């Protein structure tokens, strides 16, 4: 099938993506989904320049929005993340990719879903570290049950070699496992017992494809061993969280995450 292209970042060019009923059912059964196309390679090519500019050392990104997930913040980036990239590049909100992501979020979460922001993780070539096994809910308020999805879109092919996403099917219905900080100076979490993680499914993607995963789905992305950066833009959405009947604590969270 020919891949349609969009001539600009303007939405509404007829490039609408909807999940099939079978895809929605598959997501709810497995806790993740991989789709070949969220937007065109043409839009991805335009986004790449915007994205790379955000990661330039001199880019005017607020201190709290520029995080290191795995390495030492004072040393060369290992797993650099920018939170709220759309605050600095609002054109990210005007993309076909974002329009389609919202459609998918409504299909999975319902009409009362809300956008929960974007983040960007750019793994440096050759020495970009792994994103170790974790569940996203481990970062969030333990008093609530969260009903959220993340839509992960690569801005170049995503492969095993550069760190495509990997998931453990069915873990979206499990409890949140024990986590710890990857290192005490970083902002990334890893499960305390990664050796017990079950068999994973790797999801290579073309540029402009996407994976979608739920709050508790165990996921991982390998190190980037290629000569090019591995760029991913992540768009998050959530239905209203619900208060838990039983208490739990997430002692691994950094104090500043409480809000
Ligand atoms: Ni994650």
Low-confidence stretches: 1-12
Helix fraction, binned, reads 10-25%
Distance between the amino and carboxyl termini = 46 Å
Compressed to H and E, one letter per element, the order equals HEHEEHHEEEEEEEEEE
> Which class best fits the helix and strand makeup?
alpha+beta
| Apparent shape | globular
Could you say which small molecules are bound to this protein?
nickel (II) ion
What is the CATH class name?
A: Mainly Beta
Question: What would you note in describing this structure?
Answer:
The structure is a single chain. The protein is α+β, with helices and mostly antiparallel strands and 259 residues long. The chain is 16% helix and 27% strand. A seven-stranded antiparallel β-sheet has the order 1-11-6-13-4-3-2. A four-stranded antiparallel β-sheet has the order 5-12-7-10, with no helix packed on it. A two-stranded antiparallel ribbon has the order 8-9. 43% of the residues are buried. The structure holds nickel (II) ion. The site of nickel (II) ion (NI) has 3 residues, from loops.
